[in-house]
């Protein structure tokens, strides 16, 4: 065992909730012991050069395995624990989708009503959206389109040539992942309720699930155990102490807390049956060759066999084991991933504090839960044993 791997091995299980756990039941019925799972994770971390990582595996809708490895702060050798606060990045979006659907259940919102009907002023009169003032297509956009990424908006305006916000295609006509769309939905939610999304998420999602170390903005209590993010070369980027709520990517949470959220989705705990079914129902089939860049015109039939689609807040596909919902959470210094198989109640949550983190996905998915179905090419992830294109 190399020096780096030995150092990781000394720190695995640092979280207070690490338990002596029963074997993991993989999708193919085979079993993986805790020791075998730890060895797979440590090796993947070493090869990808990921400083800190946490993994939760679900069997039958329950947590079958939960453990953390490595360091949240490399310079001071502070261990990555299950209570270490990390940036969830776009894993924020499914949490926000649940909040929106709760408001739909209560009759406060309608997924198919144009959002301009919820705003007291024309959309173009709001400072962030003045670029859309002359585009009549903005009056077609609905909350459904914002949650399933068919609004026609770019991922982020600052990624475009002139940093102006535009609608690039007819709303509802095709999938193109959009953080801008989620932030627009946040404006609608806060306008209708008259309350900040920070409070709404805390009261409706975090408190009911006892996610005590989770918030969409930085909290003082996070200072006792938080992770630094690290770039591809291992340079510390520090934590993200955000003070403005961002429903598209601002969630600060822990491995333990986000596992409670994923488990609640698997068990249908936060929504009624109709809403849960709608959230995990295909809203739009995906024909884009890749998820990013979002506005690329290239299409493919490759993913037709798995019915690659988007639901409300979650990506979807079908496997021999049934429907799968999945989500990436990427930001500079952070890589997180969730994939859950609905019928067996099996899945995995991976959270890392490294821009190299996605390179552990394939070995963990394939070895720990026998998931060989993930659309790696579409998500631009490295396959186990294969170089990235």
What would you say about this model in short?
With 389 residues, this protein is α+β, with helices and mostly antiparallel strands.
Descriptive overview:
This protein has 389 residues and is α+β, with helices and mostly antiparallel strands. The protein has a domain at 3-85 and 255-379: DD-peptidase/beta-lactamase superfamily (Beta-lactamase, 3-Layer(aba) Sandwich). The chain is built from ten helices and 15 strands. It has helices at residues 3-11, 34-48, 92-105, 143-147, 179-193, 197-206, 255-267, 273-279, 361-368, 376-379, and strands at 24-25, 31-32, 52-59, 62-73, 78-79, 86-89, 229-230, 236-238, 251-253, 284-285, 309-310, 315-319, 322-331, 334-341, 346-352. The strands form four sheets. It has a nine-stranded antiparallel β-sheet, with helices on both faces. A two-stranded antiparallel ribbon has the order 1-2. A two-stranded antiparallel sheet has the order 6-9. Helix 2 packs antiparallel against helix 9.
């Amino acid at each position: 065992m190399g020096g780096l791997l030995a150092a990781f091995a000394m720190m695995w299980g640092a979280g207070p909730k690490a338990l002596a756990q029963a074997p993991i039941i993989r999708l193919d019925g085979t079993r993986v012991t805790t020791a075998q799972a730890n060895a797979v994770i440590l090796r993947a971390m070493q090869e990808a050069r990921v400083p800190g990582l946490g993994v939760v595996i679900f069997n039958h809708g329950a947590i079958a395995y939960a453990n953390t490895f490595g360091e949240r702060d490399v310079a001071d050798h502070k261990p990555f624990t299950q209570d270490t606060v990390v940036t969830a990045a776009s894993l924020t979006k499914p949490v926000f989708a649940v909040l929106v659907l709760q408001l739909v259940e209560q009759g406060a919102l309608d997924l198919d009503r144009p959002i301009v009907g919820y705003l007291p002023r024309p959309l173009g009169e709001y400072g962030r959206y003045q670029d859309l003032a002359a585009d009549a297509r903005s009056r077609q956009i609905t909350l459904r389109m914002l949650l399933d990424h068919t609004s026609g908006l770019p991922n982020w305006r600052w990624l475009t040539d002139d940093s102006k916000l535009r609608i690039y295609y007819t709303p509802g006509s095709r999938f193109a992942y959009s953080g801008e769309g989620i932030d627009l939905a946040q404006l609608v939610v806060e306008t209708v309720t008259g309350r900040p999304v920070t409070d709404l998420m805390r009261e409706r999602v975090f408190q009911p699930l006892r996610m005590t170390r989770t918030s969409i903005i930085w909290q003082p209590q996070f200072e006792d155990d938080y992770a630094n993010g690290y770039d591809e070369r291992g340079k510390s980027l520090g934590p993200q102490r955000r003070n403005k709520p961002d429903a598209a990517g601002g969630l600060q949470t822990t491995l333990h807390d986000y596992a409670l959220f994923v488990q609640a989705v698997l068990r249908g705990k936060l929504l009624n049956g109709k809403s849960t079914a709608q959230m995990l129902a295909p809203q739009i089939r995906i024909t884009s060759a890749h998820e990013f860049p979002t506005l690329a015109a290239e299409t493919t039939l490759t993913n037709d066999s798995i019915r690659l689609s988007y639901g409300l807040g979650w990506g979807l596909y079908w496997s021999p084991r049934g429907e799968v919902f999945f989500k990436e959470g990427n930001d500079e210094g952070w890589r997180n991933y969730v994939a859950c198989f609905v019928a067996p109640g099996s899945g995995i949550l991976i959270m890392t504090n490294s821009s190299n983190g996605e390179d552990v996905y394939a070995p963990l998915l394939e070895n720990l839960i026998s998931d060989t179905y993930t659309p790696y090419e579409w998500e631009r992830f490295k396959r186990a044993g294969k170089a990235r294109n």
